[in-house]
Amino acid sequence: MRDTVPQARLNYGQQAPELAKKLQELGMAIDKGGQLEPLLGYLVDIRASQMNGCAFCLDMHVKQAKIAGEREIRLHHVAIWRESPLFTAKERAALALTEALTHIAPTGVSDAIYAEARGQFDDKALVALVFRIMTINAWNRANVAFHTPPGILDKMYGLDKAGLG
Length: 165
Hints:
globular
């Protein structure tokens, strides 16, 4: 357990703005495609961020989900989604695939998890889901590496409106 909050190491967005912009553009393209419901996307982002220990992304996506109308109880239950009755079959399939792609087993994504996702998403939506998972994992890795502090972009992104400050 840490005794202190980690201090930011550097601002990667300032050091490599073209790279950060490309990753941001990928995320926007996934959203613009309209294949995934916004709240489902936030659940995916939250679960991957929990698993990766990314405080910045977890904080951001919880606030985004809250602003988009997600119920607080469901936000609390993302970490225990398997035991919670609050998620649909589609959300469960997305969360299972998120876990499988965030911590890839030596055997890869199991046939059962893939079949579950395949049964809930059409081809384009499944591809969008996989790319969403890939993208949040990339953001998590950058923010974990550089200790990006949670909440530092709240005003810029309007996340202060979540009322969770």
